[in-house]
Amino acid sequence: MERAEIISQITAILEDVAEVSPEDVTESSVLMDDLDLSSMEILTIVADLEETFGLRIPEKELRNFVTMGDLVDYLAANVG
Amino acid sequence: MLQKYCIALEDIVYWAQLSARAAPRRTEPDTGQDKMLREGKIMVTSLYQSLCNMETIYADRVAIRYYDEAKRGVTEVYYRQYAQDLRRFVSFLRSKAGDVKGQRVAILARNSYHYVICMYGTVLAGGVAVPLNMGKNWDEIQYELDLVEPVCVLQDGEYLQWEPALADAYSAKLEPMDAFTAFAPAQDVKEVEDLAAMAFIMFTSGTTGRSKGVMLSQKNLFAAMPAFLNPFDDVRKATGWDTDKFCSLSALPMFHISAMTSLVSWSITGHCINLCNDLKYFYRDIGAMHSEVMAVVPVLLKSLYKDVMKGRRDRLNGLCVLTCGAAMFDPQMLKDLMDKGFFIAQMYGMTETCGDGAWNSSQEEKHLTSVGHVDNSCEYKLDDGELCMRGTPIMLGYYKDPEATAEVIDKDDWFHTGDIARLEEDSYMYLTGRKKNLIILDSGENISPEELEGLVEKCPAVQECVVKEMGKKIGAVVYCPQDKQQTVQEHITEMNRTLPLYKRIGVVEFSETPLPRNATGKLVR
């Protein structure tokens, strides 16, 4: 899947779950700082990503998701 | 520990309408036990007595529901089966460790039905259950395991995935959570010899250094039960809802005192608990399991609040009573939810008091920020402004740490909570500050600032650092050369990758001058 398409899907979920405006999101955005996401919002976003991309994201990967880029990297590597 | 209840009175008609909508879903027979229990005619003072009730008066009721990943649907466990599984666990534990009286059994796993069995089965067998926080790193878990010297470590494989060192250190003691299912139910389970003996060790954040193991007995636990059961009288009286038919969604981690106590309180009244085993799937689970009640921490409440305010209340599938605890809540948010027909019960508690305390049944907005009235299970006093409690629910002490115990429990048995409180003339209590240097987050987690400061200071460019609560987040103020700020920022971003979500530093501020210190040379927080 194209990286741009992954970013578009994530920003749509971010907007839905946490009302984050897509223009405020870049790959270097820090999820809990720049985007002001709570831990609960990150979990809900991960669950929505699993459903959208049809995969299961293991618990241990959550620790690596610090920036938006981390999410995109993970999905780019794991989505067929 | 105090609890508080707040009810919107201004729209009685709406309450009545909501009451009709929140009609009971439970289909199990009503044996009249709820009423008897409520009136004090059924006394339960131990897990064994609760087990006996599960096998007799509650046998045909649903005890626990959970979403089963394998079958992609909800599984229901009746009290009869729940009790049999507890007995199976006793057989399993005896086969592994013989007489487990006083022996520690650690549990390191995600929430699950098996977790419930392992925790209470251990205590029924006479052992000491030690539920551990999966979010901690191996250094912390190893310290806690080494401290309690468990006879076995029950685990579901999750933690091993990212901390394989667990297998190296404890391979001989690791046991799968479902091992008990292969055993026959023990028929000779009986009351433990001493209900005042240690039955649980629950780790809590210390203000300095390592976490501390709070020792709790069954006597502590059951003395605290009225604090969890009585509030439902307030709900019933205020709303007219039939709380006897309520189900509770349990989404908080089972190593947390709130989850541990509510699993007991709902089972001694024969109610059903719906387990949400992974917060990630909260919306799936609440959608699949109709629940009226849920214990929440601020971060969860905020999510529910957004749903309600955005017109998505249907996602919450009948939820109408929120018991709020573990940290301070935004009063406006509570008021808005009350206006939308929720019953809000604010709970304030500590692991050391086994969750016991008091609650606020006020229905007035002016009391929204109060922690309410104390209850009858303990004595209370203010000592130089600090809230102190004395009574049966108070912990036995910190495990293998008499010095730390003596710091909080004085010679007259008063437990010093560390919370500064103010008592108003109308006997409503308000918390005004903390004596202890501890950050209490919206997730309910208690964080030691010193621990995180130590991690930040591992970056050589950092000259001084203070970690504190900054706008509901963990923030760090760092003094370092201006040209090193980027380096420090990157260090903190990398450091965050090693920490669980709740412990991450979310705000970093830089100071170009040394941080302020008080007269004794300590950094001002």
UniProtKB/TrEMBL annotation, chain A:
Residues with O-(pantetheine 4'-phosphoryl)serine modification: S39
Gene3D superfamilies (alphabetical): ACP-like (1.10.1200.10)
Role summary: Carrier of the growing fatty acid chain in fatty acid biosynthesis.
GO molecular function: acyl binding; acyl carrier activity
Cell compartment(s), UniProt: Cytoplasm
PTM comment, free text: 4'-phosphopantetheine is transferred from CoA to a specific serine of apo-ACP by AcpS. This modification is essential for activity because fatty acids are bound in thioester linkage to the sulfhydryl of the prosthetic group.
Gene name for this UniProt entry: acpP
PANTHER family referenced in this protein's UniProt entry, alphabetically: ACYL CARRIER PROTEIN (PTHR20863), CARRIER DOMAIN-CONTAINING PROTEIN (PTHR20863:SF76)
GO biological process, any: lipid A biosynthetic process
Residue intervals of the Carrier domain: 1-79
Family that this chain belongs to: Belongs to the acyl carrier protein (ACP) family.
GO CC annotations, alphabetized: cytosol; membrane
Organism in which the protein naturally occurs: Faecalibacterium prausnitzii M21/2
Keywords associated with the record: Cytoplasm, Fatty acid biosynthesis, Fatty acid metabolism, Lipid biosynthesis, Lipid metabolism, Phosphopantetheine, Phosphoprotein
Cross-referenced PROSITE patterns: CARRIER
Principal place of residence: cytoplasm
Top-rank taxon, per record: Bacteria
Pathway recorded for this protein: Lipid metabolism; fatty acid biosynthesis
Cross-referenced HAMAP family: Acyl_carrier
InterPro entries documented for this protein: ACP, ACP-like_sf, PP-bd_ACP
Protein name: Acyl carrier protein
Pfam families: PP-binding
